[in-house]
């Protein structure tokens, strides 16, 4: 038997093979509870392909018999083309603990390719008062609270479809329970008119920021 790089050749029929990973998985970011999908394409001649999550085998695909699934949360779909074979790992009902390294590994020869899964949690967002009243020349503080997020969300404020300057508010972040994060943002303003203010919380997995609004009624001191 002669070994050249990742290829093994033998003079006995059926013992020669040469294959490799053509395209490995790509990084994925999803909200908790959603599906995460990873693709791994190997060239013709492959024998065994193993998927690992944070170093633990979760699914094995054998050329001669197909996928061997040991958990309902980790399933696969397979696609064959003239260029090779693609295994798609599907992680169902993703959990925060699933975050980490997702690896596609072949055997005989051993080769691997990996990507990272980021599972994020969309928490709650609220402003403590739905309406506020402020008098002329008086400063008002508006508190927006984000609870149970992962990672900690980016907080911003808007009024009249325009973002408020960051110097107008202070945001404090804290570690919550079960790996979740909280954020408390305090906006300080002196108004001259009644305004609708919006607090926005954003993480990468959200298609649009979550928002909470408050109407602040301006009252002229002469009235």
UniProtKB/TrEMBL annotation:
Protein name: IGSF5 protein
PROSITE patterns: IG_LIKE (PS50835)
Domain Ig-like: 13-108, 109-215
Keyword Iron: no
Gene Ontology CC terms: bicellular tight junction; cell surface; membrane
InterPro entries reported in the protein's UniProt record: BTN3A2-like_Ig-C, Ig-like_dom, Ig-like_dom_sf, Ig-like_fold, Ig_I-set, Ig_sub
UniProt keyword annotation of Membrane present: yes
Protein localization: Membrane
GO biological process assignments: cell-cell adhesion
Superkingdom: Eukaryota
Broad class of the protein's primary localization: membrane
Keyword entries, A-Z: Immunoglobulin domain, Membrane
Taxonomic path: Eukaryota, Metazoa, Chordata, Craniata, Vertebrata
